[in-house]
Each structure stands twice: as C-alpha cells, then as structure tokens.
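Memo to structure team: turn this sequence into structure tokens by end of day. - J.P.
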Amino acid sequence: MAQILEYIKMALMNIKSNKGRSILTMLGIIIGVSSVIMIISIGNGISGEISSELNAMAGGQIYLYSQANDRAEAVAFTLEDCELLQEKLPHVKGVTPQYGYYTTAGGRKGNFDGYVTAGTEALEYTSSDPIVRGKYFTRADYEAGNHVCVLRETGAVALFGTTDVIGKTFEIELFNRTLELRIVGIRQDNASKLMSMVGYYDTVELEMPITVFFSALGAEMDEFESVLIVSEGAEYANDVASSAVRLMENVHDVRGKGVIQLQNFNDQLSQITSVLGYVTVFVVFVAAISLLVGGIGVMNIMLVSVTERMREIGIRKALGARTGSIMLQFLSESAIITLIGGIIGIVLGAAGAYIVCSFIGFRAQVLPSTVIMASLFSSAVGIFFGIYPAKRAAKLSPIDALRHE
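Reply from structure team:
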C-alpha cells in the first residue's frame, strides 16, 4: 500500500512539473466527460419533466372505444355505461364522454384561437392542474345545459387581462353558432407548458358541459363512440382498464369478440420515456467518441514521457526496480491524469447542464450514479491507454535506458 501511495505521489509531482502538457493531455478527457455528463443530465431532466407533465395530463387515464371486426359490429356507449363503469369499478374517479373542437373566442381584449373540451362534470379529473379561482361546473350545470365553462389562466389573461374573471362572459364560435359562456372556474396552466413546446397549444383553452356542446351541434346526446375513464392513480390504471373491457363486453354481449378496445395512457407514457432513453443513449455514444480521442492523447503524451525519462527508468531498474513496479508507476500517472480531467469534466458538465436547462425551462438531473460512472470511466480510459506506454517503459533493459541521450 505504501508503495502505491509513493507512485501516486511521484505521478502528482510529475504532473505538477509539466503543467502545460498535463492540461493539454486532460483537455480531451475534460471535453468528453463534460459532454457525457451534460447530455445525460439534460436528457434525464427533459425525460423527467415530460414524464411528469404527461402523467399530470393523462396519468391513470384509459380511453375506451369500439372498433368493428370480422366477428362483430362496433358498439355504441351510452351515459348508462358511464354510470355503470363509475359505480361497478373500484379506484375510478370519473367516467365521461369527451369531445374536442377548435374554436375562436372573443373577449374584451379581442379574438383568439381556442380549443373546447366537452364532457360531464367528471372532466375535472382529466387534468391534475387545480382550480385556482371559482369552482368546476357541476352535475346540475351539466343536466340543465347551462352555458358555463372553466377557463385556463392563459385564456383568461388573453380575453380580459386578468384571472379575476369569475362570473364574466365571453363568446365562442361552435359549429357556426355563436355561444355566450359564463366563467365559473379558472384552472392553473401547468399542463399547457408541454403542449406549447410540441406546438399543440391554443391561447384560450376551456372546458364545458357536453350537453351544451351537443345542443350547439344540433344532435341527440344518446350514444358515444368512446368514453374516458380516470382512475385514482397510475398504479390502478391496468386493473381498471382490464375490468372496464370485461364489464362493457358483458353489457353489450360481445365477450371475446375484440370489438371493445382501450388505450392506456400509461403504456404510451412508457413508450415515450423509452424512446427518449434511446435518443439519450445514442447521443451519449456519439459524445463518448471524444473520450476515445482523449484517451489516444493520453497514450501519446505517456509515450513522450517514457522517452524523456529513459535515464530515470534505467537507473531505477539498475537499482533493482522490478518490471511490475515500473509499469505500475506509469499506469498510476495516466490514471491520475484522466481522473483529474474527469473530475473537471464532471463539474463543467453539471454546470453546463444546469445553465442549458434554465434557458429551456427544465431542471437538470445530475444523478450520483452518472457522476460515479463518469469518474470510473475516465480512470478506465487512462489505464487502458496507459498500458502500452507503461509496458514499453517496463520492458526497457537498464543498459539501453542508461545509454539513451
């Protein structure tokens, strides 16, 4: 152990005596490690943020629909089906038909693009964003067909310049008809952040009773192509989904015919997270190429160091130093160079990740496992690329080394 500490001390002294060359040697390692740390941290941050946003928007939700096949015709869902799903299935917060429509909304500040989502009062549970002013429309509003709505904060500010708009009215265009809606609640805007990033965002987003929607459409509200089930949490989604399919198959007498299908948003979330992971791994692989280049630089510098220290090697071998001792000395030096470069790279990479994420509105995630992996990898690069110079130094004969000028 004392011998190893002595080799480390000698390596540090040699690095200190050749500061300029050592820094240039570390540069490739610093760039490689910082790139890897930055990409992984940004990737983890974006992936975590997207997963959180998507989970907030649709976590635990199941989209139930019917599709005809060669064994049976498609079935239509009814309000009675929604009530049955709500009553019979455990861990269900709400069940609602859901319809959407692009619209134009006009208020005191002018006209804006908008998007209407219509459903029953259970529509409240389709987003985890809280109601920050007023309340959600009620079962009574839904049954009476009251012209009320819940507006997101951005829409309220766009239409009126403030979120203090409970009780105020504005107009929307719905199926070539102009409807006046009274605002009963304001929903927080957290979920709109992700939508705006992917280009799917409207200034005025509102939720309204589906009875008003069908009234404007001039259609009977008796059958639906699909229903949305909101479970109490993502952990219940799979059980709720399978139970919902079985229940509806029994109710509509299509058991085993495969006409009732579902879309579990948790599965989609897993797929998105998996794709983001693959992209991150690929980019990290590309960035790691710079570590390979840095390792080659370490090998070149260590070969130069061996050439410069021929006489030192010869003297040590003449005094009885073993081949393994000489090899360990040079391996220690190359490992320390890359370890120091790796530590600097980790600091720069983490700082860079936080700076980049602060600009794009996400939070970087620098995981301890990533830091440990980068440290070990940088040292491994130094050891791997230091083997050849170390072996070359260890195999020198004392006579040849002492004769070298």
